[in-house]
Design goal:
The complex is a heterodimer.
Chain A: H1 9-35, E1 37-41, E2 44-47, H2 51-57, H3 60-90, H4 96-110, H5 113-123, H6 130-137, H7 148-176, H8 180-188, H9 193-204, H10 206-221, H11 225-230, H12 242-252, H13 256-287
Antiparallel strand pairs in A: 1-2
Helix pairs in contact in A: 1-13, 2-13, 3-7, 3-10, 4-7, 7-10, 10-13, 12-13
Chain B: H1 8-30, H2 46-67, H3 72-89
Helix pairs in contact in B: 2-3
The chains are: A mainly alpha, B mainly alpha.
């Protein structure tokens, strides 16, 4: 080993460490403290042990929204990842059209969440929205405010519209990084389009796809604003996802203790799933 | 620190975690670990095993709370044993 020992570099990490401490670690610790107490105001807090955890773990409302959340994130990944790859494969590689399609793809990513919600809220309305009006005039009985299936369809469509570009852009950059020599070799072997995709493009896209899957999973698992603006969680509770249930609990009912306990369970689930994704994918590499 | 609403239990909890992290750092500096394969299906370093042990301990506690009426001390005992097993043979 001829590593240079220079521990001064640790000092350069200090600002980041402090920033993370104040933005993540200290708030997280406070949430843990809240989760074991019944807090009325600053001066009256009672220690209740694991009571809140037991309560939230047995709460059917939370079970339902957890199931919906997994359904939503699963559907988002199943649609957006293949669609993003497909879009990236079909994009022009050079010239004006390449820049144009890049700009077009980037536009949805620049729109704030609540604006996306509002756009789709109006777009889907049967009386004044183009999408809802057209569907109803084509004979499809579509009403996202009254029918749970339509609400789910609209929420999913909105997310696909908003975030497929991210996957497509990631894959596009991954595809551009493949050297031309690979394609030449494939042409010499007379490889089919599918074989090129399966044995050259897909393996080379793996690292960007890891990032894409992780980002989309975490983001969709924490989704709040868009469905909140679009459907308000309705009709009934059919599109109420985890973070909205949590907000109702913490801010609507002001049940800080149960909300804290629940958010820690939520955090542990996100941590577990992200870790599983990451480990599985990185260790698949090492095995070869 | 009043706004953080500390209690004795959570104070002890975070102190234990902090001590663990510091001890692992010192241990790692004294004799760096290499990745190896134990009974877990993947190659892990010492820090990986600590993380796996702690995360699964959290879920053991949640399972105890959600599915049984038993005391959490039992869950804690199981978790400590499990953590030791993962660190040694994982």
């Amino acid at each position: 080993m001829n590593k240079t020992q220079n521990n001064k570099a640790w000092l350069l990490v200090l600002p980041v460490f402090l920033l993370v401490a104040f933005s993540a670690i200290i708030p997280l610790m406070t949430v843990v403290n809240y989760s074991v107490q019944d807090i009325f105001d600053q001066n009256s807090a009672y220690f209740v042990g694991a009571e809140w955890y037991r309560e939230v773990l047995l709460d059917p409302r939370l079970h339902d929204s957890l199931l919906r959340q997994f359904g939503f994130s699963g559907a988002v990944l199943l649609i957006e990842i293949p669609l993003g790859i497909l879009v990236a494969l079909m994009m022009p590689t050079r010239g004006v059209m390449a820049s144009l399609s890049l700009i077009l793809l980037a536009i949805p990513l620049l729109i704030p969440w609540n604006v996306v919600g509002t756009i789709w809220q109006i777009f889907g309305r049967a009386d004044i929205g183009l999408f809802g009006w057209a569907l109803n005039n084509l004979g499809v009985d579509y009403n996202y405010a009254a029918n749970p299936t339509d609400a789910w369809f609209t929420v999913l469509l909105m997310d696909v519209w908003h975030w497929t570009s991210l996957v497509a852009l990631l894959c596009y950059s991954g595809l551009r990084a493949i050297p031309e020599a690979f394609y030449q070799a494939a042409r010499i072997d007379r490889a089919s389009k599918w074989a090129i995709f399966r044995f050259i493009q897909l393996p080379r896209l793996k690292s960007v796809l890891i990032i894409g899957v992780l980002l989309r999973f975490m983001d969709s698992f924490m989704i709040y604003t868009e469905p909140f603006v679009l459907t308000g969680g309705g009709p009934g509770n059919s599109t109420t996802f985890l973070s909205q249930t949590l907000t109702q609990m913490a801010i609507g009912q002001f049940d800080l203790g149960p909300a804290a306990a629940f958010s820690l369970v939520y955090f542990l689930i996100v941590l577990l799933v992200s870790w599983l994704f990451f480990t599985t994918i990185t260790h698949l590499d090492n095995r070869k | 620190m009043n706004w953080m609403a500390w209690t004795l239990t959570t104070g002890v909890f975070f102190s234990v975690i902090a001590v663990m992290l510091i001890a692992m750092t010192v241990w790692e500096l004294r004799c760096p670990s290499t990745e190896r394969r134990g009974f877990l299906p993947i190659e892990t370093s010492r820090g990986d095993r600590l993380f796996i042990g702690l995360l699964s301990s959290a879920f053991i506690h949640l399972l105890f709370l959600g599915l049984t009426e038993l005391s959490l001390w039992i869950a804690l005992t199981i978790s400590v044993v499990w953590l030791a097993v993962v660190l040694r043979w994982g």
